[in-house]
Amino acid sequence: MRGTLAGRITLVCLAVAGVAVIVAGLVASRLIRTTADNVLQSSLAAQADVVASQLDETGIGNRLGVGKVADVVRGQGISVVVRRAGGQALGDAVAVQAAGKLGLAADHSGRVLVAGSQYLVETRVVGTRGAAFALVLPARNAEATQRALVRNILLALGIGLLVAAVAGFVSGRLLGRPLRRAALAAGSLRAGRRDVRVPVQGPREVAEVAGSLNSLADALAVSEARQREFLLSVSHELRTPLTAVTGFAEAIADGVASGPDAARAGQTIQREAARLERLVTDLLELARLGADEFRLDVASVDLGALVRDCAEVWQLRCAREDVRLSVSAPSSPVPVLADARRLRQVVDGLAENALRVTPAGAPMVFSLSVSGSSAALSVRDGGPGLAPEDYPVAFERGVLNARYRDRRPVGSGIGLALVHALVTRMGGTLTAGPAPEGGAAFTMTFRRH
To answer: Long-range contact list for 174-183, CB < 8 A, 24+ apart?
Structure first.
């Protein structure tokens, strides 16, 4: 029970109520004792005033009602001590002793100790001849009143504790019900279900838990759908070169391809094997980027020099495809903090994607611009470009491959995800958008060093 929310709320309520009971009991006991004494003393004083009104200056009753008053007082357990003018105090010995301790020479109110017992005493002087009387009440009568009050208060506090326990248990059950539903839904998610939803209700914090769990289920469903699409696209990309390698290898092994045909088959096998190697390398690099052991050799890199070096290599490849490569970069150094080898890998990856979709006669552009404390390098193409809704998801694995593989030449679906992760790890940003040449533009931005 203590391990459940209802049990803990019940215990908290009981603890709070218990502390309140203890504090209230300590305060109440003091108040009860003081109040009971004051009430009894006031009542005794009022009765003393009534008795005094029935006596004359000699201490002898001047009305017939004095006997009745005395009988009423004695019926309440109060002893009466009378001292007539010029005489001695008469009454119960203990009461006389208690009255004598307080004194019969003047009007007094107080508590005295006689033979180990406490007594409340009220004395009154009647007239001017020395007559006086006293009312003496054993303090145990006050203690009985106190005990009765304490019993009533303890009963009320006990009922309060019971109500607190019931309220805590009911509150805990009510609060715990949506959390139990959320726990069951989480278990279903762990078991593989993605259609689980939890009603968003209850206190705000509990409703936030339910809403977050529903959002998690949606996110998992979308993520798993994309993973399936990505695996399908990767499988397709792997199957194509493997089929070519297997077919041409079998042709050479069976003697179907010989002489020049065997040489062409070998070249095809080599080309497809290189394609497989690039794909596997990209997959491994993408997996390593999420691991802690992935390291970068960050240093100052001249972005302008890197662009010009890349352009020399890509000029030849673009010329073979009849694509015009333009380079725009300042002549002065543009230093940034990055890993030179990884930065070159990013540029080559973007250039390969751009060349793949750029038709013959269309342009491809390397553009480096400097603005304030940042430098931006764009790789643009004159290809068909992307739909506006595709730019925000361009760097998600396999998304563009799944959307365009039946309409245009596409890569494996992991190249853009890889270059985006590399740029991010180097402290830069990579964005996608439409290019002035009509195709797509991929722009990486770094702070100048």
So the answer is: 175/5, 175/6, 175/9, 175/202, 175/203, 175/206, 176/4, 176/5, 176/6, 177/202, 178/202, 178/206, 178/207, 178/209, 178/210, 179/5, 179/206, 179/209, 181/210, 182/206, 182/209, 182/210, 182/213
